[in-house]
Amino acid sequence: MPETTHLLAFAMLSLGMVLTPGPNMIYLISRSVCQGRVAGLISLGGVALGFVFYMLCAAFGITAIVMAVPYAYDAVRIAGAMYLLWLAWQAVRPGGKSPFQVRDLPKDTPQKLFMMGFLTNLLNPKIAVMYLSLLPQFIDPVQGNVLTQSLMLGITQITVSVSVNALIAISAGTIAGFLIRKPSFALIQRWVMGGVLSALAVKILSESRR
Question: How far apart are the first and last CA of the chain?
Fold first, then answer.
């Protein structure tokens, strides 16, 4: 079992990650607004399956392989930080778009909604960075079985992310409408998200190999 402080810290990190703009948030919001809350929640089911896939890969050795090769670890760490900085720039650049600015999506079947949610998360670099670069830093072999710790941390991340994304999918229309009526809030939201992403990128770049 990981230490309680590690679980809480990883839960807070997971919360910060899920609240920053990314493919999952943009897709779920657009889907919920264009096709309804049920469609958004079905899509979220696919996103959750993507989280499970990454968790199992990390827990059963991919993280260990990456961590064992210094250059591979550094490549993932630096690429992840650069991606977060790019997201930050997209959020704050002149003419930048908020993730709550809805994309026009066609109506799809439940099966396609689920699969699109799964693929969106599977191809989401932010999630790959979390499981390959960040999760290993919260594992301490002294605290017991590494596999158990990996699974516990993964379950924590999935619980936080799915809960927050469910709230976003259910209230997407209300939030998007509010930000359209109050553009100043949308601007503040973009700068806050950009600041959080930049800080996280700097944190990743400053970490030494563990």
Answer: 19
